[in-house]
Amino acid sequence: IAWHLRNLPTYDPNDPSVGLVHRIDKDTSGLLVVAKTPDAKTELGAQFFNHDTHRSYVALVWGNFTEDTGRIEGNIGRDPRDRQRMAVFPAGGDVVKPAVTHYRVLERYGYTTLVECRLETGRTHQIRAHMKHIGHPLFSDERYGGTEILRGERTASYKAYIQNCFKLCSRQALHAKTLGFVHPVTHEQMDFTSELADDMAALIDKWRNYTRHNA
Prior knowledge:
- The protein is α+β, with helices and mostly antiparallel strands and about 220 residues long.
- The chain is about 25% helix and about 35% strand.
- It has four helices and twelve strands.
């Protein structure tokens, strides 16, 4: 079953045979999968391991893109300078894992861009690390430098506007929007869509209004 994080049911965290099948980053909103039985968790876990699930995220990132679509391929591992952050490394080595993210531009706001990200792999902090790697950190993502004013004007009014945006959405602007998998019992294809969390929706509306009034 797919749930919003805030609606996650209570379960015994010491029982590894049920519960969360996969995780999303702390402070990322959106969909999760929770298994109610051991057999379901085994079957669903295999689908995630084999990349048979379908997942897409919506992210607001700093900067504009020259292309409407793109593919990011980069091996991800723990950043030696900050063990709570992931980084992209050259191929090879035992501490990195291959990762592929596909992105598509949804809306452009000049200094920021709303993108859809589709995962081929599911590495820790994958979208956040990949976007930083190509020069587009997630907006308001403190861990990856997104709480700096990376694009835009030097005016006091613009700086105040950005600070208000940070207050409006005080987390990385990332939402797990769609999730698809095969039901472990009925073997039906199950597809779920989640509306944006209120803070991220308000942030996007604020950027839309800014673009409209400053075009």
